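Q: C-alpha cells for this one, please.
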Amino acid sequence: MTRLLLWLLGGALLGGIVHLASVLVLPSLASQDAYTRLAALAPVNTVTPIASPSPGANLMPFMDPAFVMAVCRYDLSKGPLGFSVPISPAYTAVSFYTRTNVAFYAINDRAAGRRAIELELMTTQQRDELPGDEDVTAADRLIVESPASTGVILIKALVAEPGMLPAAREALAAARCRPR
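A: Here is the predicted structure, written as C-alpha cells:
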C-alpha cells in the first residue's frame, strides 16, 4: 500500500512539474502575440487607432467596448521616444508593455494632473547617458525606463456615453509617439 502511494505521489509531482514548465514556456513560443498581431496594423513609433470590438472580430482578447483605443509599437534602438496624449473628457489611461507582454508602467489622467499625459520613454542605458542637468527636475519631465527596446503602448479613452465618442477619438488622434 505504501509503495502504491509513493508511486501516485511521484506521478502527481512529476505531472505538476511538467504542467508548470509548459505554462511558463508556452507564452515565449507563441507566434501570434500582441506585438505580432499589431505589426500588420501599426507602424513602429506611430500612434494607430484600433477598431472597436465587435462579436467575433476582436483584434485583442478582452477588449472593452466602453473604451476607444489606440496603440504605439515602439522601438528604442535608435534613441528615446517622446510620448504625449491629451486628456479625454471622461478618463484616459496609458499602459506600457514589453515585446513579451510584460506590463511595466501605467498612468492615467488623474495621476498626470495636467491636460495631457507627456513623458519620455527610454532604456536604462539611454537614461544613464542623459546629462546630469540640475535645471531639469523630475517635475519638469516624466521619464519612464523600459526594460526592453521594443514593446507596445496601449492608450485607452473612456466613452461614458455615446455623445462623448467624437471627443475621445479626437484625443487619441492627437496622441504622439515619436523619437525625440
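A few notes: The radius of gyration is 21 Å. The first helix runs from residue 2 to 29.
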